[in-house]
Amino acid sequence: MDAMFDICYLSPDSNNVEPDDIPKTKENVWILGRKYSPIQDLDRIRRDITSIIWCTYRKGFIPIGDEGLTSDKGWGCMLRCGQMVLGVALIRVHLASDWVWTPETRDPTYLKIIQRFEERKQAPYSIHQVALMGASEGKEVGQWFGPNTVAQVLKKLIVYDKWSSIVIHVALDNTVVKEDILQQCMVNNDRGDDHTPDSANITDWMPLLLIVPLRLGLSEINPVYVNGLKICFQCPQSIGVIGGKPNQALYLVGCVDDEVLYLDPHTTQRSGLVENKQTEEQKEMDCSYHCRYASRIPMLAMDPSVAVCFLCRTKSDFDELCKTFEGELMKESQPLFEICEKRPSHWGPSNDIDLQNTTLFTEFEDVDRQFDDSDDEFEIL
Question: How many CB atoms lie within 10 A of CB 46?
């Protein structure tokens, strides 16, 4: 299987040359909130990069939309970056933050996660579902998304997938509001007659995927924001940044010194199904969801439109993240965003979906998708 992985994902002209993915430096490498030594931990860095679900352009899938598109090449890169962020969140919630993929992996939970991103109309986070839900954000199939748009689309789609057990909160107007997040994530469970009255209503925490869309400059990144980005990458709750270079979306997974490390969705691969990973074709298809090496660019070469992403599996994770925001991020001369206890009075009531009461929860195999275009949230300028 390792030989198959090498054949699939080493380019023909590479000649097994050692890639320049991680610089040889004394500076720490940060990937998805974890610290590494680029010298001592190089193998572990590459192992953890390979374990991320890598979503790329695909071709030959069931047609999407009125145009009958069978490939997302040229328009789907931001959608794929959104898929990658959600893939990391699902793995951390349902497997572990230190979970490791190998070509031999056939863990049923992992396969269940991969199947949610396959190019099938009924898969909850397929390119079909993401592109079609984009219509509720004013984006036609085949039209390029921005970071905020893909965040809003994922927030809507997650509601249809009960198994995910994740709440997505998209911060508005560069502001993280604790009250709104707590209302979304704190779930009261009635334990019934088998428990004492004192334990009848137990409050549970729904794992939170927090996405904060930002504009960090007009046409290029303002250097004043660089240190704030580094703080975000170093948070244990970090699951990267949806961003990229101008006109080219990338999934930014970490940083080293003044560079960002990223996975690039701009590789066109054939469409296919992993299913239960029994046949050689299914095993090869699974390998196509994993990339052996990251790439890197200077932070100042990034497009200024980004969305920073965090996963809080527990209430204590969220409390710790808020302390980091308040104790480090807010002390920057120009903070990336604000954090407050309650909604600003001029915002009006929250229109986030109440996940625990919605009737939309269902397994994706039986879903009858009804797209909702009532969300009036906006692209952040």
Answer: 17
